[in-house]
Amino acid sequence: MNKKPFPSMLVLGSLAFAGVLTGIVLTFWVAPVEGSLGIVQKIFYFHVPSAISSYIGFGLCGIASIAYLLKPAKWADRLAQAGAELGVVFATCVLITGPLWGYKSWGTYWEWEPRLTSMLLTFLIYVSYLLLRQFGGEGEMARKVGAIMGVLGLVGIGIIRISVTLWGGVHPQVVTGKGGGIHPSMKPAFYTCFVAFMVLSAVLIWLRVRIAQQADEIESLHLLAGDVEYDLEKNQ
Amino acid sequence: MKRFLRQTAAILGKELRVELRTREILYTMIFFGLVIVVVFGFGLFEKRSAAQAAPGVLWTALLLAGTVSVNRTFEREREGSCMTGLMMVPGIAWSLFLGKAMANLLFLLITLAVVGPLVLFVFQYTTVPNVGGVALTLFLGALGYSILGTLVGGMLGQVRMKGILLPLVLFPMILPVFGIGVTATAALLTEGDAQSFEFLLDEVKEGDELRLELDDVVLEVTVKAGDEPGDVIAALSSKVTDAIDRERLRGVTFTRISNGVGFTLVSDPGKKLETNHSPQIICRGADLGSKGWGYLPVLAALDFLFGIVAIWLFGRLLDSA
Amino acid sequence: MSSSSRRPARLLHAAFALLLLLLAGSASSLLTPSTAVAEEQSEAKPAAAKAEETKMVTGFEPGTNEEQVSGFNLMVIAYLAFWGVLFVYFLSLVGRQKKLKGELGELKARLDALEERTKE
User: Fold this and answer.
1) Which range of residues forms the domain containing residue A108?
2) What pLDDT digit, counting tens, does each position of B18-35 carry?
3) Strand, coil or helix: B248
C-alpha cells in the first residue's frame, strides 16, 4: 500500500523505545530521591510529560478539525481522531498518576483545583468526542460533526483554563513558572522523559493514522469491487 | 415453563452478544455516569448544609431539564425531512440558529421560573438576597446552554444514537459555565441570609490560642506558621460543641482571603461573635455578594465566545450538506 | 502490500513487548528499594529506629514505617497503572491492525473471484 513510512517508522519507533528506556533508567537510578516528598516524586518524570503529550494530542485534534471544516480532507479527519485518542490515553494516565501523587503530597486524592479540574473536564470532552466518532456512524456528515466537536473541544480547553482559575488552587507550578523549579540533578531524567514522550506520541499518532488510512483504502477497494461485480452482472 | 426459560435465555443471550460486539450501551452508560458524578461534584462540593446545596441543585435541574428542549431542537425538521430543504436556503444559518437558540432559551427560562422558586422553597429560603443577581446569573447560564445546545442538537441530528450522545457531548462542554454559575449563585445567595466573618491574622502570632465563640458554637484555634515565610495558617485544635462536625468546619475556616491567609466563618444572621483574644480580632462581614457579582462578566464573556464559535460552526455544518 | 504493512507492526510489537518485560524487571527491582533510598531514609532516624528497620522480618506488624511505604506503594501503583493504560491502548491498536489484516484477506478473496469471473 505505502512502503514509504516503513524505514522512518522503524527509526522513530526505536527512538521512542530507547528514549523511554533511558528515561526509566535516569529516573530510577540517576535522579536523586526528592527531599520532602520522597520516592513518590518519581511519578513526576512521567506525569508531566504525559500531561503535555495529552494536550498536544487534544490540540492536534482541534487544529486538524478546523482544517477539515475549511477543506474536507480525509487526512485531517484521521489526524483529528488520532490526536483525540492519544490525548485521552495520556490524560487517563495523568488522571490516574496525579491522585496517587497528590495523596502523598497534599493528603487527599482529589482536589477541585485548576489543573486537576481542567484535565478532568478536557478528558471528558474528548472522551465524548471519541464516543461520538465511535457510535455516531460513518460518512461525510459524521466526519463533519466530529470535526465540529473537535473545534468545540479546542474552545473548551480555553474556556476551562479561564474558568477553573477562578477557583484558586494548590497544584505546584513546577514546569511553567512560579514554582521552585526542579533541581539540576533531576533535569536529565525529566528532559529525557519529555523528549521520549514526544517521540512516543508521534509513533502512536502515526500508527493510528495509518490504521485509519488502510481501513479507508480497503473500504474503497471493496466499493470498487462491488462496482465491478455490478457491471459484470449487468453485462451477463 | 421450560419454553419460557429457553426463550428468555435466548433473548438475553442475543442482547448480550449484540452489546459485546458494539459495546455502545455500556460505554455510553458508564461515561454518562462519570459525567453525572462530575456534575454533582461540581455542584455540591464543599456545601456544608442543605441550604447551601440549593445552587447546585438548581443548576443541575437546569442542566438536565435543558436536554429535553435541546433534544427536540431539530427533531421536527428531521422527522419531516425538511432539513435538506432548509439547508438550500442561502444565508439561512444565522436566522435558523438564532431562532432555534432563542426558542430554547425561552423554554429554559420558563422552566427556571417554575423550578427556581421551587428549589428555594424546598431549601427553606425565606428571603432571597440579590434576587436580580441570581436571576441574571441563571439567565446567562441558560443563554450559554441554549447556544451550545442548539449547535449540539443541530449537529447530532445528523448522526446515529443522537438521543444517547446528546447529554454526553453537551454536559462536558457546558461544565465550566455550570461551575462558575454554581459558585456565583452560591455567593449571591449567601449574602444577607448569612453573616460571614473574616479574621485578619496580622495581629496574632504563632502559638496563640484563640477561643472563638459563636453563640452555641465554640472553636478553639491555634495559630501556626505556614510553609512559606509570612504565611500564617490557623490550625484547628478544635473542639466544636454543636452539630457541625470538625471536618466540615475545617473547610469553612481555611478559606483564603484577599489579605494573606485568614479564615472565614459563615453563620446564621443575628449571631454574635466573640473571642478571648486581645486586642480583639478584627472581624467584619465579608461581602460575599459582591464576589458573586464579579462572576457575571465572565459568564457573559463565555456566552459571547460560545455564540461566535457556535454560529461559525453551525454555518460550516449547513455549508456543503 | 500485506507484507510491507505487517512487518513494521510486528517489529513494534516486539519492541513494546521487550519494553514491558524491562518495565516488569525494573518494577521488581523497585520492590526492594535501592540502597541510596534506604540510606537517605535511615539517616533521619535515630539509631534505635534504624535497628528496628534492619531487623529480620519474622512476622507482620501493623504501623511500622507506614509513611515511607505508602509513598513507595503509591509510586508502584502509579507506574503499573500508567504502563498498563499505554499497553492497553497499544494492544487495541494491534487488534485493529489485525482486524484490517482479516479484512484484507476477505478483499483479496473477493478480488480473486472477480478476476476469475472477468477471465471467463
Assistant:
1) 20-31+40-172+182-210
2) 888 888 888 889 999 999
3) helix
